[in-house]
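Cross-posted from the bioinformatics board.
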Amino acid sequence: MTSSEAPSTSNGTSERRVPLSIDTINKRVINSEYAVRGEIVQLAQKIARDLGEGKGSYPFDKVVWCNIGNPQILGQKPITYFRQVLALCECPQLLDNPHIRELFPEDVIARAQLLNKAIPGGLGAYSDSAGALIIRQLVAASIARRDGHPADPENIYMTDGASPAVHYMMDLLLREPTDSMMVPIPQYPLYSATLTLYGGRLVPYLLDESAGWGLDVGHLRQQIAAARTQGLCVRAVVVINPGNPTGQCLSHQNMRDILSFCREEQLVLIADEVYQANIYVGNKEFFSFKKVAAEMGLLAEVPLVSLHSISKGFVGECGRRGGYMEVTGFPEDVKDQILKLASINLCPNLSGQICCALMMNPPQAGEASYDQYRAEKSAILGSLKRRAELLVGALNRLEGVSCNAAEGALYAFPKITLPDAAVQAAKQMGKQPDWLYCRELLEATGIVVVPGSGFGQADGTFHFRTTFLPSEEDIGHVVEALGKFHTAFLKKYGDAGTTQPQPQKLQPAAAVAAAPAGATDADNGH
Amino acid sequence: MVRKEATRLVAALFRASNTGVSASWSVGGTRLKSAMPQPQESKDEDLHHKDGKVLHPHLLNENVVKTQYAVRGELYLRAEQLRKEGKEIIFTNVGNPHALGAKPLTFPRQVTALCAAPFLLDHPRVEEIFPADAIARAKKILGAFKGGVGAYTDSRGNPLVREEVARFIEKRDGVASNPDHIFLTDGASVAVRLCLNAMIRHERDAVLVPIPQYPLYSASIRLYGGTLVGYYLDERRGWGLSIEEMRRALKEAREEGKLVRGLVFINPGNPTGQCLSQENLKELIQFAYEERIVLMADEVYQENVYQDERPFVSAKKVMHDMGEPYRSHVELLSFHTVSKGTAGECGLRGGYVEMSNIHPGAVEEVYKCASINLSPNTIGQIALSCLVNPPKPGDPSYELYTKEKASELASLRRRAHMVTDGFNSLEGVTCNFTEGAMYSFPQIKLPPKAMEAAKAAGKAADVFYCLKLLETTGISTVPGSGFGQEEGTFHLRTTILPREEVMSHFVEKFEKFHKDFMKQYS
């Protein structure tokens, strides 16, 4: 033990060191990176504050938040039916109001009455840690309808958004620094961030941009073999379908191959299926991994976790924090451990739970709210499709930019060819070139996007992620501003002499070095 | 131990190998580095699957498996099972007031409903149905929540609500509060865990926790791989908190090579119900200052006080009243929630942590971790807004709101007496008065025969007692061993939350069970 570890109580002369400082907190916390709300976003927040207070001078009058799939902040309206039922659940005394039928349709009232009765203690009581039973039953029933295979409420865990489910899996599966998970590159940074936080390692598999961000199972095999020769213990593979940030939608055959791979290699499959309602191309269809696994008779053999959320789709209820995970092929005693983890936070919020049950069980034909519900749903999805096409089309017309079609999800992930001078300039700042591009985009236009480096990309290539969520009135402006900026950026840094290395061919696995969890003897003091 | 050594060895190998290996891709500017081959292939196999299962309980994160969480442990699971079989269960195992019939306060629910369904605000009848101040508040909130309740907020929570929380703290303590150091969370548990996660680096990092304690602390510290160092509360002195006992615990921990980083105290106490005096808080703050330990003040029961001698005083106020060097040096995290008090809005999941004198870099890191879960739920934030900024005198809802709160608080006070008096009237049971919070934590002197029977059944004696109580009466409690207790003593925790109209029935049931139990094992 060094002297710094046993602070004396009497010594008033030495400089006082505080117990909690940036130097003495958990390194895994510090090393964890989360680009969706990273430095660019913080700068954007500052600019938005300045604009609100009339401070500073910017060449635009508002910040356009394309960094995050947060539809309602950009004007998407909530589905009326969900909000009506939620209002009645939140304020059940309204049900006794004599005017109630003037305010709410019959099926809304009936649904709220059912939920209020079936949820013990209502919204203000802790539910079971896995979620209220009635909610899990409703979710299970709708999964069964979606897949044509039964779902068991005991396999459903309601969560505050889908993110806690990822935390549970990391916590459960990662034991030592050699434990790892296969994650697509590009990926949603929740995965890299939580892997670092829980002390595991990321084994990347690269999606093939030239094949519409295709997932090649042969490449998965190469990567796992290489990871193993390097001493890593691969516990699970994460698949995001439809992809985030890449928007691709997996084919049925591809999913079968992935499941076979998981069976052969004895991996847990974590299926991030939160964008299942967001599909914009006629020739693609969403299949759940659960359905495909059931068809293949693999439900017992491949432990599968399927994630869903109310934040995406046409629902877009990000703020309520609702979601669920369905686990299949999990032994009972492992499920007990998940329940214990869930119980430490007592329970997921009830308003999010109810919203999730409603999303999975919308009004049916013949019910009073059905027509309005359908009209709202198809208007949102139709508009998202138009906006996706408009944005991707416009991006592809820009010099040095190429962008795969957004088959699903809420994002476009264009590849940008950056001039050497820009690459050098970024290097001098100690930043990634795409970060520089995104920062200058923000400063010139108020548009907030996320640098591709936050998601991972083939070396030497640069991307950014943007949502196509600005409203139809706004997106034209976004496209125009983006185009102008891009041209100006190329001019500023001189577009001659750009040399873009081809993406490197897939090589034996590399893994992000997460900070090893072993104790070091230095720097442990206050 | 062998495994720990192996982990350390592997970690060292990784550190050694992090140079000179070519990488193909990068995430966030971090090169994806190759790893050193691991010599023992067989070990890898052992780690990967067992009995043909990847997800084998022996192959899970050790910290997860070893974590214990008694509030929802064996007793709770058995109670759930009995309920499914149709037996009537009185759930007094968890402070969940609405589940036992407490009604939500009207005003906050009116506001949340209007925020959820803003189209109601345009309805011609809205003013007949909702009071004007609920309408005004909903409009104010909707104006401040960009995108309404369906949009992610800032990961620390909405700025308006953080501002309201800061004003609430200022009014309560008479001390300035900075909204940028207030993080809103899905209940206080999440806030506690965010802070512990940042604080704990490895097994040597320790946190002082009262025994008996609320198991959130033991569970989370275990989960993050740290060490819990218990300090005992003195049952004979009304569960008093003694600085000498703390010094003893600290000294022993340091002698074992632990780095004590934090100190948790719960005021009013859970499960013990004691309210700390100002004097006691001063000693605690001085101790934290001298020993350079972060104070974690669990003050979620600040509204639940059932005696008049020691009203609630926040650690922050006491720290400021003490002047320098304490006020600007003691690192303090204080937690509050909408789940307790008279609101009892457990299911909405709203809470906050206020950080005082915490290094800005550390605050930033906590912010980043909060951002990984995007944002706390908006309904919980709105409930918190109503809690910290309630209707004011003259507002249309003021009278009803004040009345609802006062009557619930008065009823809780009566119930605190009913429960502790009931326990103290029993032979072999002693119980400190529930001065605050929502629990009673009686000590039960179990006869030797009961201990033998428990042993034969393979159960801890208090678990045995609580299981019998559950099977016989349907009363679901938590055994003292889940909270920690002095060796050789046995306790249980029950809430004081059954409604008054059923409370006498509850006390009677308990009495009858206890008498029969003592008779059976005498």
